[in-house]
Amino acid sequence: MQAFILIAILLTVLYVSLIIYYRFAFTAIPSYQIPNSQIPTTNISIIIPARNEEHNIEDCLQSILKNNYPAHLLEIIVVDDHSTDGTAAIVKKYASQNVKLISLSDHISTKINSYKKKAIEIAVAQATGKLIITTDADCIVAPKWLQTIAAFYEEKNPAFIAAPVAIDCSWSFIQIFQSLDFMTLQGITAAVVNKKKITMCNGANMAYERAAFYEVGGFAGIDNIASGDDMLLMHKIYKQYPARVMFLKAAAGIVKTTAVNTIKEFFNQRIRWASKADKYDDKRILPVLTLVYLVNVIILLVPLLTLLNINYYVIFNNSHSIINTWLYLLLFKIVGELIFLYPVAAFFKKKDWLLFFPFMQPFHILYTVIAGWLGKFGKYSWKERSVN
Fold first, then answer.
1. Which residues of 340-379 are buried (b: 16+ CB within 10 A; e: fewer)?
2. Cα dist from 37 to 67, 69, 73, 152, whole Å
3. Of 381 and 161, which is predicted with more confidence?
4. Are 347 and 341 in contact (CB under 8 A)?
């Protein structure tokens, strides 16, 4: 048992060291501001895949149109993915405002594994913009979202832009938890993209050159994977242009997305994200994901061993019980994560939410272990579709 405790301590120290490294990497990114003299020149095509989004799509479109981006430089393409509600009818009302509707059912007649990738692929083929921006139908964009992305693109010349996303939540437990968990992922995303260590992003707010999409073959080679229209594509572009994959750290560039309402929906979402973990060509992400998973497994196992009445002593102090060891490891993990999260929460203007963070730890540890396992060996349902 002493070997087990020693391994637990070493892995936790390594994990916290990594998290602190991410804090410094995040704070090292300069916040981007639109130059006062900036006049947009980039032709932009916004692509929004949508399936049964009649309650969200209108708010999404209105938030985009409020950006006041030059009309001759902007087109919005909504791809209706076999919706059975009023999504398509709502989109058609905006046809006079450069909003184009594509019906996915007009282009595919057989069952496929990734409808979202196919929707984006078809939209890119019909797009006229030099820069493709993707978001989701349940998202609300900031008033200067487009101007910020265009200015950043014109100044920095990236081939791929990962941009910030925040979850807009209520006071329910699962929604507060999502907001904190997602904020953590966003902070890590910014850190690793900026350091060119691992490429992460979220399809609710990202952009790439249309030419780069075709230079890397689009979704070819990853089109059979249900998820990964964001990160897997980013990895392909990163291999081609490692110096031109960038993170846009700008409050004006934040996109807000809705939280899921139930624990079941949450697990389905996170299992879907975890399912693509071993599909990356860039294998640098795997040791990090493995470390995160093992630390959570170990912290979960320690109290379970106590319940089994397995008594032993910490190698460094024989007076410590197994519960004391667990508390020290858990406290060390929480403190390290809070140190990392503080500047991230400040960027997203959610510092007050950190008060809930310590109380969410048990659920966070449990969900990480379960979602990681099922992401590899289980199946999930998403948008009323079951995926193995």
1. bbebbbebbebeebbeebeebbeebbebbbbbbebbeeee
2. 17, 15, 18, 13
3. 161
4. no
